Amino acid sequence: MIIFKRVSYKNLKAVGNSPVVIDLNKANTTLITGSNGAGKSTLISALSFGLFGQDLVLNKSGIINTINLKQTEVVVEFSIDKKEYKIIRGIKPTIFKIFENNKLLNEYASSRDYQKILETQILKMDIRAFSQVITVGGRNYTPFMKLKSVDRREFIEDLLDIRVFSSMSTILKDKVKTLKEELRGNDDTLKTIKEQVTLQKSFVDKLTAEKSVSVNKIDESIRGFNADNENLTKQVDAILLLEECIGRKYSGINADDEMVALLKFERAATNTELNAALKRKKFFIEESHCPTCSQDIAHHHKSDILDNIGKNILQVEAELTRLHDNIKTVEGMVEDRLNLTNEIAKHQTEVRKLQSKIQINNHLITSALVQIEDLNKDTTSIDVEKEKLKEFAKKYVAASESRKKLLDDRQYNDLLQECLADTGIKSKIIKQYIPAINRSVNEYLEKFNLFISYHLDENFNESVKSRHRDTFTYENFSDGQKARIDLALMLSWRDIARSRNAVNTNLAIFDESDAALDAEGAALMLEIFSKFKNTNVFLISHKSDQLADKVDTILEFEIQNNFSQLKIA
Known about the structure:
Structural class: alpha/beta
Number of strands: 15
Distance between the termini: 33 Å
Largest sheet: 6 strands, antiparallel
Order of helices and strands: EEEHHEEEEHHEHHHHHHHEEEHEHEHEE
Helix content: 55-70%
Number of helices: 14
């Protein structure tokens, strides 16, 4: 049994930095009251966040105090058997610690794994069970009657502690998936081996047939290759002869690009000399005074100079003509040499192609000779290949036997899946408890003076009949009647959970559960609560004037300086 002892919380919703501390195991019945918005229902949010890391409605950012915006922290203390537990959980900074007998449990790398340990190994309860068995009412509460069929099933499976079968089913599904993959792999293996057997048999048949092939036919192909090689050799010889002639022409050409460059350099120098002479001639034609001494140049002296310059110009122009002709001649020889080089390269490429064909023919001749040699030998190679064929056959048999085992395993797993399905073992267990659930609900309905017949079937669909056997739905009832039905269901869940030792706890919180109840319903509810054993009931209600004298303890919340806090009596 889980004995909740204490919860403290700060910076949670309207609660500020001053922690609210509530003793959860102090009195049989406790009334939590206060004005609207004073923080009466924050107790449920504190427990929900502390135990499960989430509020029943709001996300994490929605439960942080909107003024302080940080250091939200909840501490929940409880015991199970002889072990004392403390859960500390916070936001900004993020905190999640579990203490067992004042010793910190190993913190897992993933907070999700840490939470899983808390829910499955310690509390043995998830947030859905918490919202149906421990808390009832309030805007965070979804009555069982409004849950979808799948959510009803999961809740009752948790309640009856049979979710293990769902976990086993999930594990089995993974195993079945692996088995299917192994079967597919086995099929592929069988297909591959079968193809290998077919190919190997064809190869053995081919070897046997080749034994009877005529050696003369192979000789004939060899003679064909030899004749082709002889023709190719003649073509190679002819090309080599032509290449030799071209080579002689090539060696007779004594010119290259360097020679052309030297001639062009010499022509450029001569051109420069000619330009200088022409410039000098122009000067003496146009000028009569020496530019250095400013004296007149004698006519006869100028005439002699111009005659010498003219002779020099004629000599230089003749030299330029000679150089120009030489350059053209040498460039022509270089071009001829390049053409011969290209022609030689072309012939060499053709020779390589012909020699490659000869090499291929020689390889084919060698292969043909090997075939003749093999044909003349005994059947050893055929016997070896037949042994390989036998090995493939053995592998095929082994793979077939493995397939048979996999098929047997699949049949066994299919049977297990059928047992673990919703219609299998779980259905049988649920079927046994449905009458007890219905009986318990109807007993509580009678205690609430609601004389109807409530029936939940194995698919978790309800039918409700009046005393006169008229059939109703949940929505046909008034809000007060719905509240009585919800309370009857919640109390039945607690009884079933306690009997199964699934969710057995001292704590029950009713958030405005009396809001829709009339005076009679509220009185009946308190009468039922007064008979609870080992249970601490917390009533969150604004009807303090009607309930104050009917409870053991009262906790009143108020708002001071914009923060929710417990009012000190």
